[in-house]
Specification:
The structure holds two protein chains of two kinds. Chain A is mostly helical. Chain A contains seven helices and no strands. By secondary structure, chain B is mostly helical. Chain B is built from seven helices and no strands. The longest helix of chain B is centred in the middle third of the chain and has 29 residues. Chain B is elongated. The chains are: A mainly alpha, B mainly alpha. Chains A and B meet through helix 3 and helix 7 of A and helix 3, helix 4 and helix 7 of B.
């Protein structure tokens, strides 16, 4: 039922002029994918470091609040670029993305990691002392572990979209 | 050159190349791992480059940022080089004349040279600009070159999928 709805939605997108135009621009998708990969690399480089601090494995000379303040603007900016380039690719080939199990698992993990990150940032506002303290708390380890596992899997699934359907 | 191309053809038709090319899972698995290692390389070295050009993290010393990122850059590069080499065997002969592949290898070579020049020419005087938000020109040039070259590697790398294969492009 939901699958049929997503399928007809995908089919509808593919009939739009924008989707048709994208299909004629052979330069567009490769470059969009390259920008997508560049952005996720930066996300791995920044959020990954914050995650390692949350886990208590690295960067213990800095506090979680300090690192989170440093990287949050990067994270939101990069997520915006990732969303835009992902949208370009989805409009070009809606069925290939929306009906693809790799894409769906990727979106599920994205929702989980965003939820956990936003929760952590809210906690940081009121309970910074507890989050900055060493040794790191169980909550800190949990958020760091979930985030790192989600982002690594998201990167791997992203490339798998090209091979599953 | 002919001998080299014959060698690449024998690699492509050898057991490893043939297996990677014909298996359902090998190429996608290696490729996704390759991209993951690439995110480690670029995601780490860019933090240092941004610090070198004075665009970010200027509240931290260059040496601290370097210490933070270098292990990730090197391990990421080792993983990407290994997975990339295995991927290469599957279409070795085709990649050797593929323009994006050649651009990618060229840019990687230049990135390596840039790193070496930075180590030899700029890095020895680090104690004088370690704290500085505005680093000397030669340091900033090395940072900008590194960013430009690694961006070229990623763009060209993604284009390889569209110029050499029908399947893994999109």
């Amino acid at each position: 039922m939901i699958n049929e709805a997503i399928q007809s939605f995908s089919t509808w997108i593919s009939t739009t002029p924008l989707s048709a135009w994208e299909g004629t621009q052979s330069w567009l998708i490769p470059n969009s994918q390259a920008i997508h990969i560049i952005s996720v690399s930066l996300l791995v480089g920044t959020i990954g470091r914050l995650d390692l601090r949350l886990l208590g494995w690295m960067g213990l000379d800095q506090t979680v609040s300090e690192m989170s303040r440093r990287y949050a603007p990067w994270m939101w900016g990069l997520l915006a670029i990732l969303f835009c380039t992902g949208l370009v690719q989805t409009i070009a080939e809606p069925t290939r993305e929306l009906m693809n199990p790799s894409f769906r698992y990727k979106m599920l993990l994205l929702a989980i990691v965003l939820g956990s990150t936003v929760w952590m940032m809210q906690q940081l506002r009121t309970k910074a002392v507890a989050w900055d303290a060493l040794p790191v708390s169980a909550a800190s380890r949990l958020v760091g572990g979930v985030s790192i596992a989600c982002w690594v899997t998201i990167v791997l699934l992203g490339r798998w979209i090209a091979y599953t359907q | 050159m002919n001998g080299f191309m014959n060698f690449l053809m024998s690699v492509q038709n050898g057991p490893l190349g043939t297996y990677i090319r014909e298996s359902d899972w090998a190429f996608p698995t290696l490729e996704s791992i390759h991209v993951f290692f690439l995110t480690l390389v670029f995601g780490s070295i860019i933090l240092l480059d941004l610090r070198l050009i004075g665009l970010a993290f200027t509240d931290r010393r260059v040496s601290s940022v370097t210490r933070d990122v270098m292990n990730f850059t090197w391990w990421g590069f080792a993983g990407a080089a290994l997975s990339g080499s295995i991927l290469f065997t599957s279409y070795a002969h085709k990649y050797a004349t593929d323009p994006p592949t050649l651009i990618k290898f060229g840019a990687m070579g230049l990135a390596g040279i840039n790193m070496l020049v930075y180590e030899l020419v700029a890095h020895p005087s680090i104690s004088r600009w370690d704290d500085a938000a505005k680093t000397p020109v030669r340091v900033r040039v090395a940072g900008w070159l590194s960013i430009a070259l690694w961006l070229t590697v990623i763009f060209a790398g993604r284009w390889i999928g569209f110029t050499t294969q029908d399947q893994n492009g999109g």
